[in-house]
Amino acid sequence: MGAAFFALITLSGCLNDDNLIGENCYDEILNNQEELVDCGGPICEPCDPCENGVWDPLLGEQWLDCGGSCEPCATNFNGVIDEGETGIDCGCQGCPACPELCGDGLLNGYEQEVDCGGVDCDACPTCDDGILNGNETGIDCGGNTCDPCECLCDCTNGIQDGLEDYIDCGGPNCEPCEASISWFSSGVQFFGDASASAELVNGNLQVTGVSLTGAQIGFVIAEPADGWYNGLVVPLNPAAMPQAGAYTSPLGDNYTTLFGGNTTFQINYIDPVSGGYVVGTFVGSMQDALGSTTTISNGQYSMPIN
To answer: Are 112 and 119 spatial neighbours (Cβ–Cβ below 8 Å)?
Structure first.
């Protein structure tokens, strides 16, 4: 991925005699372990919850950073169907088209659950759809909601059993598990056909992929306080620092959740050791330094952990 790329998505501050000064909380630079620019962290004033890019219903927000004690929500961004809209916050004059909302991390459009179901988005995972999805560890089995997978100890049965590292791969009997990652951006599907890798570094999980066309995507996820687990969902936005996602387009345009956006990174299965395996999905949006937004959708990865 290159040193510059990882430097971008693993930004962190350090405290020393040179930057323990209050003025640094007004320098319009994300530093000193700030959560957002010039707020949060050990030095600056807490960030305004109305500007943190997170929907905080416990604080009274009606939708993301609006309603309650925040500024009122616009009618085309309030989580309900208003007059003139054909779906939640879509399909009206000045609103986005409903299919455009399938990757924004919010329950809107015609969705049945966040970013899935309805007439526009991919079907929501179930335990009888014949597809490995949700947090299943085998096709329609395992995870938090489906029945446990039965051990048939077969490298072709579509479930993880025996001594397999993952479904029908790895271990002493099956073929090695392959590394793969794919995603859509601007309606184009990209694959990590040049490289795809996962690595545990100082307690952080780093997942990266590079396409043959030069597109690059990467994530840095910190180990939760209660350890890694299947079904982990990590929201990524400027407040999630040092956790972050970043994307470089084939034209060299750089986007990151450190600048803005709202991306969800999910781990459906993980064996969190070197030589283990990790599988999951990602979807959402990222911004560049000028505030332009790109949407990442249908992101999927499955790869050994180096």
So the answer is: no
- Give the Cβ contact number of residue 155 at 10 Å: 15
Does 72 reside within a domain? no
The amino acid present at 4, given as its one-letter code, is: A
User: Does a structural domain hold residue 127?
Assistant: no
> Could you give the CA distance from residue 58 to residue 51 in angstroms, rounded to a whole number?
15
Domain that holds residue 221: 180-304
Element (H, E) at 3: helix 3-9
Instruction: Note the Cα 203 to chain centre separation in Å.
Output: 18
- Residue 20, domain member (yes or no): no
State pLDDT tens for residues 10-49. Answer: 444 444 445 554 567 888 888 877 878 888 888 888 888 8
Q: Give the C-alpha separation, 93 to 91, whole Å.
A: 7
Q: What is d(CA 248, CA 1) in angstroms, rounded to the nearest whole number?
A: 10
Tally of domains in the chain: 1
Give Cα separations from 72 to 56, 75, 77 (angstroms): 14, 9, 10
Q: Which two tokens stand for residue 30?
A: 């994300």
